[in-house]
Amino acid sequence: MAHPLAGKPAPADSLMDTAALLAAYADAPDVNVATQRVAFGTSGHRGSAFNRSFNEAHILAIGQAVCEYRAAQGITGPLFLGKDTHALSTPAQRTILEVLAANGVEVRIQAGDGYTPTPVISRAILVFNKENCAGGPATGCQADGLVITPSHNPPTDGGIKYNPPHGGPADTDATGWIEARANNLMADANRDVRRVPYEQALEAPTTFQEDFVPPYVADLGQVIDMEAIRKAGLRMGVDPMGGAAVAYWQPIAEKYGLNIEVVNPRVDPAFGFMTLDHDGKIRMDCSSPYAMASLVGLKDRFDIAWGNDADVDRHGIVTPSMGLMNPNHFLAVAIHYLLTHRPDWNRDVAVGKTLVSSGLIDRVVTGLGHKFIEVPVGFKWFSPGLLAGTLCFGGEESAGASFLRRDGTVWTTDKDGILLALLAAEITAVTGKDPGRYYQDLAAAHGTPHYLRIDAACTPEQKAAFKTLTGDKVAAPTLAGEVITGRFTRAPGNDAPIGGLKVTTENGWFAARPSGTEDIYKIYAESFKSAEHLQAIVAEAKEIVTAALAG
Fold first, then answer.
1. Which candidate in 89, 122, 151, 358 is catalytic?
2. Domain 215-446 of CATH type 3.40.50.720
3. CB-based contacts of 21: which residues, under 8 Å, 6+ apart?
4. What is the mean pLDDT of the chain?
């Protein structure tokens, strides 16, 4: 049940004390406390200075660990360093620059202490490596990157993620090494961390300030049909949600002659302009109807509108016909449109989807004679395929995706919220239908999906049992009245462990994955029959999971 103030403007007493948060950044964590150690999840290390899980000591240790990892991997090119608009991002970027400069790493940052979206860093890495490293990784010159961001998390949070030379999220081999080394450094009071004062780091011969905005904006025409959008004269509304995209939409509008209105140009580290999310917290989640309530309320002013999270790797599409679209629905629309409007793409390239994304994607892709690859949760699984051009699209149910340039070559290997937002405009311009109406046509042709995600209670013992779970521990022959057709603990697309269980039938499925921080597991479920059938799937899913974990 949603919080009573969900979707309402944040009251003054709900706003954080920014000065207190910044002061807490200097607090020393206790490496013997598990929650205060460096821990890299699917999107890097995240935490808050208030609970000593994202403090200067963490960033010093992570910075030194990254320097040592680069040296061990023979990475000698520049490191592209970006940050979003969270309050902790600026001090964390300063700390990391002090360490990088002391270690002699060439660093490129946005001029004027500006903000940089995650996809801009990904693209910059790839462009540099293409132009300067024709010999590939063996040349040792390749670039990589760091982004200081906790994504859509609340204002009190901070985060940092590493993108290796392939431009996308680092795999567990890299993050595991960095995490272990950082914790070892912290355990020794960071005595082995090299550091120089910030002013010296900023003036170091290895530190370069440049404007990342013009090259990214100029290159967008290679991926999106900007001329079609311009000719259609669409009225477009954008809410950057106080994030790093705030400096990008006006240059995009000017470069391509587009009618884009930025409805909220404000940047505020407390994000006091936000409407509260489902739980009464401030969260820049562009897939949440509560966090996006302000823009949804303006939907009839625009032909198409969108929002992005703080580091701009996610998109929320708002249409006159449907309001805020379910991320799964828009992914299916985007994929169908691209597969029918990119004639220069190789017919053999596949579509990548996470195993908790909608089955409508499966039906759309196979219906067009293409293949899809189903992988575990995490965009890192798509990066190699996008880079090699064997995947034309990679998308997550959490509103993150990227795809190839119009000529079939790589654009980014990380999620790009700007790209998917502009694709929504292209779809509207070219087809004359907003993505909501486009989705309705797809659902009429392939079936209407009923989808949800909920949390279920889980004991520590059950969470541990997920690690050894196998499909043969699912004894039930049926799920919600249908014969079970698949029992998976490894992803069918790449045989990687999914960290949970997925069970499928002809017209439905569920997946269960334990939380990394709470005594719960997440249930994702979908039915192509009815909302009632979906509830039956969820009810039986809990029974199946409990029995499988006990077995």
1. 151
2. no
3. 48, 49, 50, 87, 88, 156
4. 96
